[in-house]
Amino acid sequence: MNVPPKVTERAFAQLAEINISGETRPLRVAVSGGGCSGFQYDIRLDKAEDDDLVLEGGGQKVVVDPVSLPYLAGAVIDFTDELIGARFTIDNPNVTSSCGCGTSFSL
User: Fold this and answer.
1) GO molecular-function annotation terms (predicted)?
2) What is the pLDDT of residues 35-57, one digit of tens each?
């Protein structure tokens, strides 16, 4: 069985900040084909579907669809706020290489 992805407290806290001024929506983390290395992440606010894996913390939810789940096994979903920008990040142990810009990867 694959190890499900984890979400850090920092990522849940940032999601709570995003959702504070409106409708509370889960953060969807998915893997899709594309980019120069073959795969890319799709991270967006969305609604949960019946077959999604739901990860909960701090009153917030992160959802992963069943097709993306094997590609995210053991991954850590986090949030970083650095001089170059603030964004949700994924530390994925399944990635074998990534492109120079860091937006696409191969498994």
Assistant:
1) 2 iron, 2 sulfur cluster binding; 4 iron, 4 sulfur cluster binding; iron ion binding
2) 777 889 999 999 999 999 999 99
